[in-house]
Each structure stands twice: as structure tokens, then as C-alpha cells.
Amino acid sequence: MSLECATTFAAAFVRCKEKPQTLIVNSCGFSGASAEKMAGLLSLNRGLTRLDMAANDLSGEAEKTLIKALEQNKKVLRVDLRRTHISDETQAKVNELLERNKNLLGQETEPSDEIPPLYLNEPEYLIWEYNPNNPDHIPGRYPERVREV
Questions:
Q1: What's the rounded Cα separation, in Å, for the pair 122 and 69?
Q2: Which of the residue ranges 18-27, 53-62, 93-102 would you say has the lowest mean pLDDT?
Q3: C-alpha to C-alpha distance for 55 and 114, rounded to whole angstroms
Q4: 146 lies in a domain?
Q5: For a Cys staple, 24 with which of 52, 87, 90, 124, CB 3.0–4.6 Å?
Q6: Cα dihedral 124, 62, 57, 51 in deg (nearest 10)
Q7: How many structural domains comprise the chain?
Q8: Residue 143 lies in a domain
Q9: Other Cβ atoms closer than 10 A to 106
Q10: Where is pLDDT greater, at 69 or 148?
Q11: InterPro entries, per this entry (predicted)?
């Protein structure tokens, strides 16, 4: 899957009003920048509890983005990473973060400092994030914002 396609898909997934709990994108041909874009979805979509990315190439920078996204997202409970070429170290860290999330079930969690609550529902903020004309943007890295309140 191309970076442009992954960017457009991610934009639609994050903007949708009904937040899906499961996303299955196994064997979609993600690699390199498109894999990093899809892994970063976890940092923005707070409704997702299960992600199946099996049989895509998540090696390299996508591994780091996946870990950063899972550190921020305390809702996801299952991530299928079979045949994704990730290291054993990354798999162990993913398992640790998923176990943390399972232990947090039913508890109130604080909003992430990375996504200030004031801006969470501002469509123009998310549109900037996933503008198809901005394929270089990686989810979870936000532009500087000045509070207007």
C-alpha cells in the first residue's frame, strides 16, 4: 500500500464519527512510511481495542512509532503482529504495554498530554494531521498550538 493510500485511509479512520473498536488490515502490503503511518493510528484513535496488522512489514521506524503510539493509547487490548518482521524486543514491549492496558480496564485514565483535551474534537486539527497533501506527517507528532481560551 502506498503512503498516499495509507494517509487517506488513516484520515478517514480517525475522522469517522463512530469509532470502530476493531481494525483488520492484515496482508495490505504496508512497509516503510505507510507502515509507520498505520502504526501511528493507535496514538489518535481512542476507540480502537483490537488491531490486526499481521503480514505487513513493520520493521524499522514503524516499530518505534508503534511503541510510541501504544505508550499513549491505554485502550487497545489486542494487536496481531504475526509475520511483521518486528524484533523480539519490540514484541516484548508491545506485550508489556497490552498487559498494562488490560490491567487498566474499568479504571479512569487521564487524557494524554500529547493530545490536549481542548483540541481533541477540533476537526481542523485532525484534518491537518491526515491531510492527504501532507503525506510526510507521522501520527502522534503534533504541530504547535496556542490556546485560544
A1: 20
A2: 18-27
A3: 30
A4: no
A5: 52
A6: -60
A7: 1
A8: no
A9: 5
A10: 69
A11: LRR_dom_sf
What percentage of residues in the chain have a pLDDT greater than 70?
Answer: 70
Decide: 100 and 74 in contact? Cβ < 8 Å: yes
Cα–Cα distance for residue pair 52/50, rounded to 1 Å: 7
What number of other Cβ atoms are within 10 A of residue 77's Cβ?
Answer: 16
Tell me whether residue 141 is in a domain: no
> For residue 86, what are the domain limits?
3-129
Give the CATH number of the domain where residue 62 resides.
3.80.10.10
- The CA-CA-CA angle for residues 129, 35, 71, to 5°, reads 70
Work out the number of other CB atoms within 10 angstroms of the CB of residue 61.
14
The residues, ordered by sequence, that sit 6+ positions from 124 with a Cβ below 8 Å of its Cβ are none
Answer yes or no: pTM beyond 0.90.
Answer: no
Question: Could you please report the per-residue DSSP string of 46-100?
Answer: SS--EEE-TTS---THHHHHHHHHHHH--S--EEE-TTS---HHHHHHHHHHHHH
Between CA 126 and CA 98 the distance in angstroms is: 25
Question: Is pLDDT above 80 for 129?
Answer: no
Is 134 among the domain residues?
no
